[in-house]
Structure formats: structure tokens, C-alpha cells
Amino acid sequence: MKNKYNTGCIGLLWLFFCLSASLYAQEIISVQGRVDGEEGPLVGVTVLIKGTQSATVTDSNGAFKIKAPKGASLLFEFMGYTSQEKEVNSNVMIVKLNQNTESLNEITINTGYYTVKERERTGSIAKISAKDIELSPVVNPLQAIQGRLAGVHITQNTGLAGGGFDIEIRGRNSFRSSGTGANIPLYIIDGVPVSENLVTNNSLLSDNLFQNKISVLNGINPKDIESIEILKDADATAIYGSRGANGVVLITTKKGQAGKTRFTINSSTSFSKVGKFMEMMNTEQFNQMRDEAFENDGITYYPFYEYDMVGTWDRNRYTDWQRELIGGTAISKDIGLGVSGGNDFTRFNVNLAHGENGTVFPQSGKGFVRNSALINLNHRSQDDKWNINVMANYSVSTNDLPSADLTTPALKLPPNAPALYQADGKLNWQNNTFLNPLAGLGKTYDSETRMLVLNTQIGYKITPSTSVKINAGVTTNSIEDRVLEPHTIWPSSLNRTSDLWSVSQKGTNNSDSFIIEPQIHWEKKFRDHSVKALIGGTFQSNSNDLFRITGIGFSSNAFITNIGLAKTKIINQIKGNEYKYAAFFARLNYAYKDKYIVNLTGRRDGSSRFGDNNKFGNFGAVGAAWIFSEEFFAKNWSWLSFGKLRGSYGTTGSDNVGDYMYLDTYTANTALYDGLSGLYPSRLFNPNYSWEKTTKLEVALELGLFNDKINVSLAWYQNRSSNQLLAIKLPEITGFPSISDNFGATIQNRGLELTLNTINIRKKDWNWSTNFNISLPENKLIAFPGLESSTYKNSYVVGKSINLVSTYNYEGVDPATGLYKFTDYDNNNIINTSDKRVFVEREMKFHGGLQNTISYKKFSLDFLFQFVKQTNFNFDNIVTVPGLLSTNYPVEITNRWTATNPNAQYTAATTSNSDAFNQVVTFQESNRAISDASFVRLKNVSLGYQMTFPKLGIELLNLYVQGQNLWTLTNYYGIDPEFTVMGNLPPLRTIAFGMQLTF
Amino acid sequence: MNNLYNLLKKGIGLLVLSLCLIACEELVEIELPDNQLNTPAVFSDKHTINAALSNLYSNFRDAPLPMGGNSGGLSRYTDELESFFTDDYFYTNSITTSDPTISQLWGSSYSNIYHINAFIEGLQASNVLDENEKKVLLGEVHFLRGLYYHYLTQLFGDIPYITTTDYKLNSRMGKTPYLEVLDLVEKDLKTALESIDNIYRHQDRIYPNKAVVELVLAKNYLLQKRFDLAEQYAQNIMDNPLYALETDLNKVFKRSAHSTLWQRSPYDINLTESNTVEAADYIFTTLPPTRIALSNSLMHAFELNDLRLQLWTKTLTDGELTYSHAYKYGKSFGEIEYSIVFRLEEAYFIKAEALTYQEKVADAVNVLNEIRTKRGLISLPTALSKTDFITELLTEYQREFFTEGGHRFLDLKRNNRLQNLETVKPNWEAKHDLLPIPESELLLNENLKPQNYGY
After folding, report:
1. What's the chief localization of this chain (chain A) (predicted)?
2. How far does the CA of residue B142 sit from the closest CA of chain A (Å)?
3. What is the pLDDT of residues A735-781, one digit of tens each?
4. DSSP secondary-structure letter at A44?
5. What's the domain range around B111?
6. Structural domains of chain B, count
């Protein structure tokens, strides 16, 4: 906290320093006037004398008064309106500003190294701006993108704030699983790449909660973001070369606006709950299953550990464990303060924010808390030659949680399990027969993540057509996490003491990177020809340090956070990684008559992740666009306001294979023998593997119809990833489970993306617009030389998706025996792996979103439906044998085999039939465990009421109610169809109340 | 402004530089991480060679065969323990081919064997040690390799005998038949025997000496049914003046026991109050037990005056429930205990068993009586039939070595008496004499097929 404010103070000081430049005068006249919008006078418009710092703001009647030198230009700026410039030549001035409808000509798109007008864009880029991001009451910006952009599919891994996300931009390009970071796009915040760092696990101890996947974007406050651009095709990504294969996510933070110093206060409170519980068996159904199990087993004398049968437990109790353990309401509070302003030369924006996010667990730590500060400073010199942008984003996030997610116990605990607490308020262990799930809450996980992104861009115009630019940035991302396990989590009857049983673990992971990118930009226009060129270089260096230590035994739990005081200290891990990357890139863009455009981009990359023979790789792309609505034949088509055909082809790559994998080394082992530390062989090494390449092809049609009231974009793409770089699975008799190598296999991701934006009503009081997007991806393995003789022959099939699962063929429950039947393909009367012959695709058929924005006078309503058509694992994937005391089941299990119900869905209840237990894995790995997981979700609703109180100097007061994940339509068998790991807390249903005040 | 201009000049300089030197590898050259060392460097320094060797021992400590450090895995598999774990597929004899414990056991063993093979290859290429020093170290690691395969083949039957680090070759490696594996084990152990000294490298007996090699060799000869050799090597150990049977049974599992052949150095030697993993696994102090307890059939195998019943087990009762646990380790804090791998008593048993199969039952009875009398039991008559004596011998094995090194399973198996388990283990079948090879291995390497029968 302290640090944050220090940074803030320094930033402000700097700001004042910059503002104190001088103003020089000449012949001055007094100008009076009024600024009108389409519906009357506009209040709060900034009126600025161009080239100076002097400015004023229109009053409640839209009037202004300013003294300006004759011949100077006045600049009129207002949020949501197109700015206008007027020369001062009389004392009276009436100005009309037009609403900025974001028509194609206006929007500029950031492509990273350069910007391009939407109209002239040759690449495939999806954009979401602050307006839409701010509609969602979310912690991580990725949540706000879900369902809004074509070609981008994001899955939230857990309902706990501070976790991770799986993001796929146009499908999976690699055999490597998402856990290895193989499909993670390149994230760039204001020009600085931030690495997700999955290859080395960004958190060390959050395995039970987050599977060690923590999104790096958790450190960014979504309200600080001006826009997110997602680069998809070769034309847009080839300039990122080896890092562009999985797409590039460009995040631009909010910059200051010239004019009056504006203060913005944001505050919101939200309430989140698990949207829907699973219907589990109640006590009566559970007891019936138990009785049946013993009857089927012929057991009449119950062993002592069948606690419900021998009276140790009250078998008639009932607890809804989902309500008890994950049924709470997570309360989140956010508050933010922003100051922005400046003049024509220097603008600043400072945002400070504090957010807290609780959990749905019954008793737990504070949850996820983030303090963040964003400082943006932009300056351009009076002669317009220098251009300097400075951005600093610093955040400290802490997460304070139980060390394990309670969702699995909530689903598994028998409904008649004993109470959590004794009458005296202590945890109930029921005489050492009940593993109280709340005991696990005593084992805590907490983390502190500090993230700094600092960026400076300095540009200098050497000649009107040539400029040089340096982009330099630094990032620091340090995660410190801790798991504390006091001896009190054990039943007191075990007499465990802190000096043997209290355990404290601590991990730190520090990542630092810096990047420097010198560039030369050149552009020239002569007659109908326009040429833009860019050359530049990149040098990037990342380093990463890991350290993990465990302390066992404390004389008192009061010391548990201080591992120095532990009786036994074990250093589990010390590891450092280094990654260096150097590149040269170039772009050449040529446009003729602004309707034929060709864009060439290329990059030569060098990466330390490859052996000496393969350190460098070349990537490049060509993109072209034809704006046919400019052609003579289209001029008569009054319905066509804009028409563009564009296409691109090129290659990008990936070096996301992990550091040092080509080296033959030994690694130090922290386990001691005889007090000596060991050295063990690090890996099976292969010095010869090289770059993975993805060739991307795209053709797209973009249309604006009826005066841009309807905008359509239809894109077809085909990405082929070859020279697959992966950890090739090996039998463990080789000593290692895998070796890194290139693979001749080719994966194809092909698909269609359609976006449709319509303006349905635009009237004085009424506005209604609709955005629709749908993506139809198709993933296919198109070549795999030597598949049959490789270690992957049971995992992949040429012509099918790579999201393939080999399964046993489930035939049903045998009416005679009550056991499951599976197809015995080799007729040897044993169901074993050679019968695992049915390949089932976990496929994504389509996904998309439908957003409507309606405003009436001062009200605005926005709602977004997200829809996904897919198949995935269902609850049968974790169902074992019904009958045991240890596990409750969904109510579906009541349809199980009995003599009177021979045609059942589930096997007979038993506690000891080994034939039934032997089938568990086969059942879980059968094709029955994969089924439809499609859903339609009311992802987001936002209702706002905007007011202005000009007399009080309040420019805008927005009161809003927002909802997230409000309603889901699905017939998925499981707790929620959006998941990556079964048993994690599902995404929560959130309702937020908030206000935004600008003055 | 000047500063900025300078900065920019530097930037342009850098740009020009990067354009010129773009092919220059130095920009992307990195240093080794500080926890890694190039393989040739490891074997060019005595200390790092020692560290690589030390790793082989900590591997064995952390995943010791026969059960890979799994709490009494084979004891639960047979009739020694009652288990209260949920879904204990070992205990219920319902292991499947995808059982994670099996994969772990198989994977960690072959990983450790890789480490051994890499050590052998590295050391042979090294020139910092003289031939004699090299020979001694090579002897030790050949012993370790032999030991891994000695156990693996008893658990899995025919297995690949990997002796190189070439993954291209190894990933296609087929199985070597059980009897050939035993011959190869014998070869590795013989190599070890030639170079390992009788004097321990460490006074705590945490590294094997010649007697340890002889013991494993004798065990292996029992499997090879070369009983004369088994007897001879067992006798060598019994005659070795370094060892003596402890008369006080409370001392057998202490660090300084004279009967110990080899024990494992614990994770942290500075721990003064730490117990062995065995103590942590087996001892419980409250009822009902939540993990494992000694089985009724084991408790019934003891005669009441057996000192081992009195001193190596402990019974807890609360009037209603009665359970016992192994109490070989963990009896007292303060006096250090290491986990014992082999102890002298086993040589007596090997000799007795070897004599039996050489039809010298009376001599065998005498050897076994030496143990029995020290355990408070009366001597057996020498006139026992061979079958009866084998029954007695196996019961004695059970009482002496319960919860140690998977003895029960291996002893019954070696003497063809696994079917005895059918009376106490309802799911026991003939196929259970072998564990299944992990399914994933068969999928990744066709040459490992077929799966062991019955799985």
C-alpha cells in the first residue's frame, strides 16, 4: 500500500512539473459562443486554444467565453462526440458537434507497432472498448470479453476470484495441453509483453485451488482499460513472429483528455452466489442406497466403520452440504478514484482503485483484494516533433483463502454426515469418525502478487515523413504464496502437537523482464499513392526465480508464519530461469486511391529456447484489402455504404516450449542423503528441435449497409500448425515421461466468424443497437506421419479433432448382474486398454454472443447472452460405485440396478463387490462420460441511469445495477458446463450496485 | 531535452546495431540456471560425482523397493494389515492396470534406474578418478541396479532390463523373461561384489558393503533355485564378525544395532526427534484406527510368549474395540532410528530355506531354532517333514519380518504358497502373484505387451 502511494506521489509531482510550461501571447480577442449537440446545447464541452494550455468548459446552457489570439484554432472536445477545430476570426462562434457513432472511418485500431484506420485495415482484429468492459462487474478483464468477440473463447477455471482462465483464439494450435501454456496468446500492455509464465507454474502452492494457474491479468483493474484488441490472422500477428501463433491480446490503458481536470469516483458493491446447485440424494434416498448395498452384499453384521449402520452416526440427519459449504454470498466492494486532464501538449490520467472480493465458503479469509494504481502521462512538444508517453501500472493483489476448494466435499459428503460443530462451538469430529471438511479451512492459502508494468515511448519526427521511436518497458511480477497447516486441523483426540504437526510452506516466484524496441516509421503520400514503412528491432530478456521452503514443527502456532522458527526446515525448490529474445521486424504498406491496400509484415526472431543450430526463425505475412464500395459500379448502390474484401496469408510461430530444454544437464536435488545434496539428470535432452510454425490464411468480407446502420463482417480462416513442438510421450522405462522434439504432425483450425452490428433505433430519446457474433471453429488433425508406430496412436486420429478422448464403449447395465457392460472388442472376456477403441471428440461446435444496448432518455440497458455449443466430460466422469458411506451422488443415481429395476442407468449398490469396483475407471473413461455441455447464458445485464448536475459542477452521475452470469439454460449433467477441472467452484452469479461520479 | 535526444541517439544506435548484428547469437545467449550443471562438468569433479551418487541413494530412500515408499503396500496386499483407507485397491486386491500407485512404483523405479545408467555412462567417460576409485563407485551402482531389478521382476514378472540411457532404443525395448532377469541381476551383483569392500564407507551403515551385496545375491540365488550358492552367501554373512544377533529385541531397530546390514540415512540427519517413516505409518494412538492396523491373522500367528509379540507390537483397547500396530520403530524418542533395509536375521532364514530345498531339513530346523530361541520360543523338533517345515518357516518369516520390505508376499510367492491367502483375502486370485504393468506403458510401447495374465 505504502509503495503504491509513493509511486502515485512521484507521478503527481512529475505532472505538475510538466504542466508548468509557459504561455506566450499575441493579439488577443474575446470569443463568446455556444456548443450544440444534435439535441440542443452541450454541457461540459472542453474548449481549448490549440497549441496552448488555456481552455474553458461550456456551462449549463452550452455557452462559453474565452480569450484567444486572433487566427488561433479552438478545439472543441467532448466525450462521445467527434472533436472539431475552428479558427478564431470573430467574437461569436456557434459550433455543432456530432455524436461519435464510431463509424468505420473514425475508429483507429491499435495493431501494436502501428495503428490503422478500421476502414483501411487488412488484418483480422477484434476490439472491445471501455464502454463494454465497464458493463461487467468482474475482477479480471478476460471475464468481460467472454461472449463478446468472435473467434475468442474464454473459460473461467474457477469461481474464486484471483484464479486462471483458458483462452483459445481460433482453437488449439498445439498438442501440448493448455496447462503447459502452449495455447496462451501473447499479452501486451501498452507495448510491454507480460508473460503468463505457465511453463514454470506461476504459483507454487495453489495446486488445490487454482491448479497453479493464476491469470497474469488479475493484476490489471478492468476499469483502467481503454480498449482490448485481439489480433488473429497472419497479417496482424506475423509482426509478432514467433510469439504470434496463438494470437496477440493488446491492452491499452486509459489516457488523459485535454481540458478541465476531471475527477471520477467509482464505487460498487456486489453480491455473488453459486448460480445453481446440483440435486443430490437426500437422506432417505441415501439410506435406501446403503441398505440396498448391504442387502446386495449379503452383509448383516456391519463393521464398525460403517458409522451410519452401527449407530455411531445419526443416520436420519439431513444437511444440504452445498448450501452449507458453498452456499454463502461473496460480497465484493470496489472503489476507484481517477484524476485526468491536461492541455493540448501534456495530458495525464491517474487511477487509483481498491477492490475486495469475498468467497462463498462458510468461514474463510478475506478473499481476493487488489490495490492498483495507473499513471499515464502523454506529452508532445510544441513543435510537434517530440512525442512522449509514460505509463506505469502497479498493483498489489492478495488472496486469502482456505487451501482447498470446498466444492468437491460439498458434492461428496453424505447427507447424514454429522454436524460441523459441536454444541460448544468446537469442530465436531464425531469421536474421530468424521473427517470434518471445515478442518480443511484451518489449512490456509494466502498469496501476495505484486505486478509492475512500466513503459516509455519516445518518438521524434526527424522529417515530416520520418520519425523514430523507442519503446522501452519493464515488468515485474512477483508472487509470494504460503500454505499454513496448524496442528489444530486434526481432531484433538489424536493429541497432535504443534511441535510435530504444524506445517508452514512458502513459495516465491519473481519474474522480471525488460524490453527495448527501437523503430523507424516512414510515410509518404504522393497523388493517389500512399506508402507507410516501419523497421524495428526487439530485444527482450526475462528472468524468473523460484524458491520454495517448508517448515515443520513449531513450538507454538503463533510462530507458524515464521519458517525460521520451525524445527525442521526443508528447501524444496530453488530454480532460476532465463529467457532472451531478439528480433528484427518490418512493415511495408501501400495504398492506391485509398481503395487498394497491400500490407507486408515480417520478422526474424532469435530465441534462447533453442539449441545453437536453431536459434533463429523467419516469419512473415502479406495482407490485402479492396474497398470495392469506392468503385464506380458501387457508387449507385445506395444501400451499400461500405464494402471491403480483405485477405491475408503468412506464418507465425511459437517457442513456448520451456527454457533450457535442449541442454544436457544435471539439476541439484534438495533432498539430502547423509547430509549431501544430490545431482540428478535434468531431462532427456534433444539439442535439435526447432520453431513451431503456424500458417494462417484468411478471407473476409466487411459490409456497411444503409448508411452504416448495419455492419456485417464475415471471415473465413484456416490456420495450419506444423512442425509441432511438444514433449513427446515416452514409456517410463526410458527414465522420463517425455522428450521435447518437433513432430511432423499438422493441426488445422478452420472456421467461420460472423459479426453483425445493427443500429435499430436512433432517435432523440430512444437508441437501440444490437451486436451479434458467432464463431464456428473446426479443429482437425490433417497429417501425422508415422502415427501408427508412434506413442500417440491411442491418443489421436488423423481427420479428427485433437480434443480427442479414447474411451470404452458403454453398452448399458447388464439386467442380469447389475454390472456395466462395455464392448469387448478383442473378445478376450477382459475389458482392458485394448478395448478402449471409441474416439470421442470434445468438440466446440460454435460459440458466440448477442448483445443489445437500449437507451431511453437517461436510462440505459445493456444485456448480453453468451451461447456455446460443445461436448465435454459430464458428472459420470467422477462417479464411482454407489453404496459406500464416503460418497453421496446426484439424484440420478437413484435409477440404479435392483432386481426390480433391471433396466437401470447405474450399477447396483454395493460396498464390497470387487467386480463393481474394478469397473469404476472403465466407466469413468467410457463414452458415457462425455456428453453435451452446451449452454446459453445471460452473461451480463447492466442498467444505468445517467444524470448531470451542472450547477454543482457534476458532469456525470451514473447509478447502475449490473449482473453477471444471471441465468443459464443447459441440460448439462454436472454443476456447471463452464469448467476446466471438475470439482472447482463454478463461475458465480453476481449482482452489483454501483455509481460513477465525474466532476 | 538534451537528455532525451541522447537517449534517442542511443536508441537509434541500438537499432542500427541490432540491424547489423541481427544474426549475432550473443543477443540470445543465456547462462545456465544456477541449479543446473552440464553433464560433462558433473563428471569432471569428485564432489559433483559424489553428489550424483548421493542422489541415487536418496532416490532409493524416497521410493524404496519393493513398494516405492507406499505405506505397507504389500502388507496390505497380503494378510498382514487391515486397512481403513477409502478405496484401498491394494488391500481389496482389486488393482487395475491404471492404478496410480502402480504407475508411480514403475515410473519411479525406472527413473531411478535411468539415473543409475546415466551415472555409469558418465563415470566411465570421466577421467578425474583413478581406475580403482572408479571401480568401487561402479560396483556400488551396479549393486543398486541389480537390487531394483531383483525386486521389479518379482513384482512384475518379465520386465525390460534397461542398461543404457538411449531413449530411442529404450522406448521400444521389449521384456526380458523372468529367469533371464535373475541372471542379469546376478551379473550386476557379481560386478559389485568384486569391488565393494567389507568395511563400511560410513559407520552408520548407510551405504552397502560387501555383506549387503552377498545378502541380495543369496536372495537372488533362492529365486534362481541355486540353493547351494544361496546357502554359501548366507553363511558368509553369518560368519562375518561385523555382525551379531541382538539379544535385546528392543535394540534391533536402533541405529547402532549389530544386526543391521544396511539402513537408510533419513531426510535430515540433524533431526534428533524424528521418527522413521515406518513409525509414522504404522503407529496409532487412538481408536478406532484411521489408516492401518495389524491384521487378526497376523496377531493369531504369534504364540503368547513370543518376545516379538510383546516388544514389536502394541495393542490398544477401549473395552469395545481392540487393534494392534507394529511397534518395531518409534518406541522412544531421543535414541535415533534409521529405516533398516536388511538385517542379519534374514541370512539365517535364507540359509534355512536353502537347506530345506537341498533336502537338509534337519539342518534347516537347527538354523531356524537359533532365531526361535532368541525370540522366546521353544526349539522345533528336527524330525519335521519338508512341507511342515516350510509351513513353520513361513510362519516364522511372518512373525520376524512383518511390515518389513514386503517380506510376506515375496516369501509366500517364492515358496509357492500365495494360495494360502485365499482363506483370509476374499478377492485373492492366482493372477495376483504379479502386479499389472501400467496400462500407459503398454500403450506407449507395444513391445511390452502382453499385459500380465488376468489383467
Report:
1. membrane
2. 17
3. 988 888 888 889 999 999 999 999 988 887 888 999 999 999 999 99
4. S
5. 50-84+100-266+343-448
6. 1
